[in-house]
Amino acid sequence: MSRALAALLLTFLLVTTATAQARADATGLQLSADNTATAATAASAAPLVASEVQGHSIALPAGFHIAVIASGLKAPRFMQFDDAGNLLVADAQAGAILRFVGNNGSPGGPATSLIEGLDAPSNVALHDGYLYVGETSAISRYAYDPQTGVGARQVVVPSLPTGGHSTRTIAFGPDGAMYVSVGSSCNICNESDERRAAVLRFAADGSGYERFASGLRNAVGLTIQPGTGLLWATVNERDNQGNEIPPDLVTIVGQGERFGWPLCQPPTGRPQDPGNDCSDITPPTVAIQAHSAPLGLAFYTGQQFPPDYANDLFVVQHGSWNRQPPAPPKLLHIHFEGDQPVSAMDFATGWQADDGSRWGRPAGITVAPDGSLIVSDDQAGLLYRISYAS
Fold it and tell me: What pTM, to 2 d.p., does this model score?
């Protein structure tokens, strides 16, 4: 890494971050190649302590524990709890939505198959009595009751573009609108379909389409920040640009914003090719390790963890292929003061060996009713529960 690039990634930059109606000046967070911020913020990270899982060592902060709560899944991705405490899991490879019955605030017992025959479902979302499923080619929904199950399939957004990045993530905003992320068809190209590399917005029944934000090469995770109503996304940026550029993104996404892909590189809007106009590119809220492949994200809304974790953000990094050495799979903890990110540190590591081989790859994350974290692993076919006991 060049000295100039290292200096850039080791400083805080003044950027603009979205509010529900407008953007206001705020301090963004830029991380170095190993996910540390400035010396002052990095010093706040506590040493990680090893726990034994599946014959491997996972390191977590002191007081935290990790355990496998489900195994034998194919490729579990994103998850959500229903109002009865049951955990709904999208298994992309199985083409199914699984349900784990709630047990004292966390899932327990074997899974049952709630819906089958789906087109690589990557996530689920509950809204106004319906279970929504993000399939590669469509958004479908089912009338849902935690006790009786699902009704008939309704396709609310048909004929989504296929090929290339395949996840279709759904989040519902405080406005009741449905936000859907659709990744690009390629690494770097000019798309013919405006729905690619974008976050789309619809009414809950699939009507009223608009392109909400663009230039997001592959926005995989979507979530709403508590207290602000802001939409946050994880974004997998372009490959084959070198080990350290461009960073992947964890960012607020506002209406009409352009994040640069394919013409401009984050975080500063550097032109991909000479002559590209990058004057109106939106900088990311947080720029993280290049090629780390951030997927699931969740704000901590539980009560089990220490008070300093309240409303902080956990980000799952799936790990890279386009980097030497590969960026490892891990969980990243982004600490907030008020509604602004101020520091970041590793929270859970250990899925990758020193030689770059991996025994697992975490993918999705959600907060359980008891305040623990549930994490999916789409390589090992596992669900983990991360809990805290002082």
Answer: 0.90
